[in-house]
Amino acid sequence: MKIYTKTGDKGQTSLFGGSRVSKDDSRVEAYGTIDELNSNIGRLICYVKEVKILDFLQKVQSDLFVLGALVAADPGKANLKLPQLKTDVIQEIELEIDRMDSYLEPLKFFVLPGGSLAIAEGHVCRAVCRRAERRLVTLSQLGEIQPDLIIYLNRLSDYFFTLSRYVAHLEGILEKPWIPEK
Prior knowledge:
It is built from 5 helices and 2 strands, in the order E-E-H-H-H-H-H. By secondary structure, it is mainly α. It has a two-stranded antiparallel sheet with strand order 1-2.
């Protein structure tokens, strides 16, 4: 099987279920941003050393494939066999946030992204995750999207923020506060 099909050469692609849509369709934009997030997580994994974090990030990557499949599905096709997000994934993210947060000083200021490659990439993942969330909100206003998918991405962006702070803690790097000019 060839990787190129030439069916998208005129700016259209197929949703899961067969419908053809423009490549700038809100649904395509949403699952494309989820894919971009997943790719950034792959890069983040290259910089993280703690096994517990690595295992969790790989689980998140798998969950994002499920999320992408749900978003890429043709809403007009009711009988599609789609994977489902497990009901406890949001709680798992919250537990992991709480675990990492227990090692951190309370946040008293806005944090400038950076300090190491892992910290910076965690912040990139947070920002892309927020964009993916915004794309799902747009999609939810245009058609049906499961509310849990938006909640999942909202919580996941919180995870990446906390992860960036936690990695700074592990690496012994002081967080740089944002100090507005007077």
